[in-house]
Amino acid sequence: MLSHFGAQIVDLGSALLLLTCFAIVAQRRLSACVDLFALQSVFLAATAALVAFLTGIHHIYIAAALTIIIKVLVIPRILKKVIERLNVTRELVMNVNVPTGLLICGGLAMLAFFITQPLIPLGFQLTQGSLGIALAIVLIGFFTMIARKKAVTQVIGFLVMENGLFLGATASAYGMPLIVELGVFFDVLVGMLIVGIYAHRLQDAFDSVDTSQLTTLKE
Amino acid sequence: MAWPLLILVATPLLVGLACLLVRGRRLIEVLQCCQAGTMLVSAALLVDWVVGQQEASVDALLRADALSAWFDLILGIVGATGTLFAVGYLGEEYDRQHVTPRRHRLFFAQFDLYLAAMLLAVNVENVAIMWIAIEGSTLSAAMLIGFERSKAALEAGWKFVILNSVGIALALFGTILVYYSSEHLLGVTSEALRWSELYRVADGLDQTAIKLAFVFVLIGYGTKAGLVPMHTWLPDAHAEAPTPVSAMLSANMLTLAVYAILRFKAVADRTVGPAFTGKLVVGLGLLSVAVAAIFFLVQRDYKRLFAYSSIEHIGIALLGFGVGGIGVFGGAWHLLNHALAKSAAFYGAGLVLLRHEHKLVERVSGLLRSMPLAGAAILLSGVALAGMPPFGLFASEVLIAAGAFTARPDVAYAFLALLALAFATLLYQVFRMALGEPVEPGRALGWPCRLFTATAVGVNLAVLGLIGLQVPSGFNTLLSAIVRIFGPGMGSP
Predict the structure, then answer these.
(1) Of B163, B180, B189, B228, which to mutate for an interface test with A (greatest number of A Cβ within 10 Å)?
(2) Quick check: B331 and B396 in contact, CB under 8 A?
(3) Residue B85 and residue B453 in contact, taking contact as beta carbons nearer than 8 Å
(4) What is the pLDDT at residue B70?
(5) Hey, where are the domains in chain A?
(6) In chain B, fewer beta carbons within 10 Å around the N or the C end?
(7) What is the distance, to the nearest Å, from the Cα of residue B94 to the centroid of all Cα atoms in its chain?
């Protein structure tokens, strides 16, 4: 009974993660995108903690705590600082407009479920729905990186992909070994710092973080 | 406990950290020279160890079988000469006051950590830690590519970071899928992520999961290997990075990405048979050769020219691994020879860049006369890269073509036609640079720069020439062991 109920709650958590992806795609204001990413990370940490509780695999708690520290507290702060310094608030021109973007994301979610359909019987009873959702989040994050032009939103797209991967690892595979998770967190954090450094230098060199201005290097 | 393995991986890590702490240019240069020597010796000892005992391991963390030892050899030799070249190159920039003491120190710290991350990735036993190390090498490379902080360098660096982050994220999804299917056989522990365990249980893994995982891994690490159509970051990064970094990107990082693909291919071959992975790998390989061969002609920048040549050669090597059998032998041999020749070509290009301070092919003719060292490096390595005997790339291309004939004759014909095209277009550009009359005087280089770079070029070309004439017997043992890891290949039923 508990596990059946638990499975539904885990599915609910995963679905909320997917929902915030759509909200990010629909949102033009950059600081709101960062907040939505932080909210998504809260859902992710909650889902992970729930999986840890239901399965009794304790190291997932550590991963959930790290998610709160790094993805809810540290990274959004770095991004807010970058936004403040660069003085960009809104994404005015996008490669794909919002309604089309949402439709494409709906299509991507269906594609993700279609691809993972044959793998679902392999999964654990508790979290069978999560793999499809994880892939959907990865694909939507990827799409966000293509659809947006500002460096900051491209970074958010990457972080959303990362959240999808983390959901895939914790919910459907019951967590990678702890050392692996620590390494992945370390890499994401260092990656964010490097991206921050790059954003500053791009701003200094181009007076803009609009990546559509990066056109010097062409065939 | 295999000491050479531990020393090989730990040396660049420790020297890199030391560079952050010490002050003074001379001290850093001495440290780098020690690192180059240690890497060369420990790589040779490691190969000797693995030839004798099949594998070397340090606890459960590091394990080098024949495949790892082969890539250790490539990364060890080229990493060592690359370090020497970087000492000469950065020293000259320092003398011209283009880099400050602080940035000189930072460069070597990042450069060494980059080498360390790559060496860790090829030796580590855990699939996911390999991913972490490869991501680490991507991040350190990102800092190195933007090192010169010009607009073009920043643009190239940004492109590199974004594209490779996406690639590496997709590769992580592939890794998670492998874990997802292996933990049912091996339990929810790190055992389920060990290469040796994965090979042992590979026939029992879920076929759909492994197929899907391989596709994700191929796209993900293929981005890092510069396979067409995920190659768009590659020419920019190679052209704009400081030249020692360009050489390491080409010779080491692309090779490392191929290593990652091969490891997963070996698992997938055991699970779903070589035909599935073979088709995908051969298709991407052929496409890469085709695009590179055509783009040689329109290049006006010599560093971009060599960058496209890397796309071509990585494509050729993957094609060899894809067709299997003798092609695997050829592919592995190709990677070693390509790494030696391509880094020598970039060393030559770096000297030309220091002298002329621009990268235009048409304004640097007559290199053999004006700069004998750089001219010889570019001419000899260009001839080798075009696939002329007596260099090893000729032999490996013949072997790969032979492997393709037994598996898929149509692939072999397409491959040979593209090779002929690439041969003509690359040599045309190389001859334009090396021969003829010098047009511009340029700036003279200091003697320390000439000494260090001459050593780097000399070691590379000497090794390239020697192994072209005769495959050493130890290498033969390693290559045969690698062929056994991959089994019979596409041609067999």
Answers:
(1) B180
(2) yes
(3) yes
(4) 96
(5) 2-212
(6) C
(7) 27
